[in-house]
Amino acid sequence: MSDPLVRLENVRFAYGERTILRDISLSIPRGKVVAIMGGSGCGKTTLLRLIGGQEKAVGGQVRVDGQDVATLGRDALYAMRRRMGMLFQFGALFTDMTVFDNVAFPLREHTELPAELINDLVLMKLHAVGLRGAARLMPGELSGGMARRVALARTIALDPMLLMYDEPFTGLDPISLGVIGQLIRRLNDALGASSVIVTHDIQESLQIVDYIYFISEGRVVAEGTPDEIRHTTDPFVHQFVHAEVDGPVPFHYPSDDYAAALTGGKA
Amino acid sequence: MGGLRKLGSVAIEVVWQLGFIARFFWLILVYSGQSFTRLNLTIRELYFSGVLSLLIILVSGLFVGLVLGLQGYEILQRYGSSDSMGTMVALSLLRELGPVVAGLLFASRAGSAVTAEIGLMKVTEQLKAMDMMAVSPIARVVAPRFWGGVISMPLLAAMFSTMGIFGGWLIGVVFIGIDDGAFWSQMQAAVDFRYDVLNGVIKSCAFGVAVSLIAVFQGYDCVPTAEGVSRAITRTVVSSALAILALDFVMTSFMFRGL
Amino acid sequence: MSRTTLDLWVGIFVAMGIAALLFLALKVGSISGSEIRSPYTLTAHFDNIGGLKARAPVKSSGVLVGRVEQIRYDNERFQAEVVFTVDGRYKFPVDTFANILTSGLLGEQYLGLEPGGEEKILAPGETIKKTQSAVVLEKLISQFMFDKAAAGEPAPTK
Questions:
Q1: With 60 as the cut, is the pLDDT of residue B225 above it?
Q2: Which of A96-100, B8-12, C49-53 has the highest mean pLDDT?
Q3: Contact at 8 Å (CB) between A57 and A218?
Q4: Residue C18 touches chain B, beta carbons under 8 Å
Q5: How far is CA B214 from the centre of its chain?
Q6: Domain segments of chain B: what residues?
Q7: How far is A266 from chain B (nearest CA, A)?
Q8: B258 vs C54: CB contact, 8 Å cut-off?
Q9: CB distance B125–A52 less than 8 Å?
Q10: Residues in a beta bridge with C99
Q11: How do beta strands A6-15 and A59-64 pair?
Q12: CA atoms within 13 A on the CB side of A102
């Protein structure tokens, strides 16, 4: 009840010379939906990879359900991942199987359940995302929004305790956007799980999440509940939330004097 | 000076890649259990790599045999040895042309397809998704494709050689009119099971391992963009061809030494 | 592509492959011909081995009974030493002749064994005493020409 499901403490991450995350400390409380926002390339997706154990932090600790992810051996890591679900940006459905087989995949791989039970479970998951009728289609026949919903059904197949979403709202039409947002909230509450959403869609996030973290230049620059964020005085967050053209994130790429450049240095 | 440095860095890159491939090969072997306990995974790959290559292998084998027959007859009849055509066609195919040409065709048709498949799965993050679902992509995706290729290759090479001998027979006996009995009996007398047939099979097995390993590796290791996949496919075909020819030389010098 | 159709095609494929392998092994190659069971080794010395190579056949009465394993030069006797294996089912007496013969006129050379009449049998590792070297064509021709010249020439003038 009290301790958070996911806790990052002073996490540092670098790709060789490039430092992506300098000093990240955040926590995902149990049962809550948390959004992690920031500009493109600020390291949001890397955070998800660190939580899922696909990358190892260079400094600091990443704890999931009390366990330090970096110290887990392969079997322990796989055991941990069975309790997590990750939704990739474009769904990442297996293109050589039907929608039904995609959702059934985790069930068939990790459980010994009989075929009839798996059949029921798959149909239930598909029904939860509203796509039970599409069970026999191939991923190639689905629209972007539908593909993401099927991937969502696959993500919740084993009733995970932690759900991770990598840019779930990107490239969707307004209706699909609303649908996905509602599904994220409803499924989280129905499963009693915790969710982490990495996104830069501010409007949708403000409506469904419990807490937001803002990342810039490898650090947490702001955090708060949606209400706090809407009324923030922090200039960076303000610019982000109100989609201002210029502010702490400048409009102009660093360059020399405008007048001098135009006249070409000639007097 | 800069040229030498470039050469050095290329050499280091090659050695590094070889080490990488070796480690990858080891991983595949370690994770191969599922390829055989869940046989339908491998059977599916046998279909896509083996069965779908049948047409090109059989047709090419036939044509190679026909050409061998024609060219062989042209030369042999100058020395009055046209009866030896059966021997010549059989030995050429069994020892060299069968394994090598079938290997090259297999690399172009099946090897490139496997690289494309795995590469595309990498681009669309399917491999990462599988990994996040606690299923090893090497066990589930890579290893079955590897074994599918390894099993298919010697079978295809044997069928290539068979079609080739048939082609040689067609030209020699049916069209040119060489004695049917002489064709087969001379062949049987000259072809030794251990040295010719078996060595050819061993060669095709070695080529199968090389081509399959290169194909799955290039797909798994490619840059996850469309351009990266297409470059990986090219690399599969080129590297496989070079590997086959190099291995062929090494194995031939071991097998047919002192003859 | 349903699972059963897939399995069927793979089954056909594997069956065809195995059939091709069997065809090559049995009808094309001579699988029974090269079987030499429980071989034992014998040695023979020759003045000239001609074109005899390792792996050349060892035949008796025209039937394959063994294989040449190694050909060495014996610096003490100044002769070629041929080590060969013989199928364990066949025994040869100690006065067997070992000849280097040619298949046909210009074919490959092989080792021919002609048994003598002795009761005692050659034991494994023993050396054959009676050998006949290969016929070297050039020597034959020059011999022929020499004889011809000697015969055609009238008796030396007195």
A1: yes
A2: A96-100
A3: no
A4: yes
A5: 11
A6: 31-255
A7: 41
A8: yes
A9: no
A10: C112, C132
A11: antiparallel
A12: 30
Tell whether the model's pLDDT for residue A267 goes beyond 60.
Answer: no
Give the ranges where chain C is alpha helix by DSSP (H).
Answer: 3-23, 137-152
Residue C105's alpha-carbon distances to B83, C102, C136, in angstroms, are 16, 7, 12
User: Cβ contacts of residue B116 below 8 Å, gap of 6+?
Assistant: B219, B229, B233
With the C-alpha atoms ordered A96, A101, A103, A104, is the resulting torsion angle positive or negative? negative
Nearest-CA distance C23 → chain B (Å) = 8
> Which of A79, A84, A92 has the CB atom closest to B126's CB atom?
A92
Interface TM-score (ipTM) > 0.90 = no
With contact defined as beta carbons under 8 Å apart, do A223 and A213 qualify?
Answer: yes
Global pTM?
A: 0.82
In this structure, of B57-71, B113-127, C118-132, the range with the lowest mean pLDDT score is C118-132
Residue C158 has pLDDT above 70, yes or no: no
User: Both tokens of residue C32?
Assistant: 């029974």
Question: How confident is the model over B88-140, as pLDDT tens digits?
Answer: 999 999 999 999 999 999 999 999 999 999 999 999 999 999 999 999 999 99
- Two tokens, residue C27: 């009808």
pLDDT of residue C155: 55
Judging contacts by C-beta atoms under 8 Å, the chain A residues touching residue B126 are 92-95
Q: Are B34 and B42 in contact (CB under 8 A)?
A: no
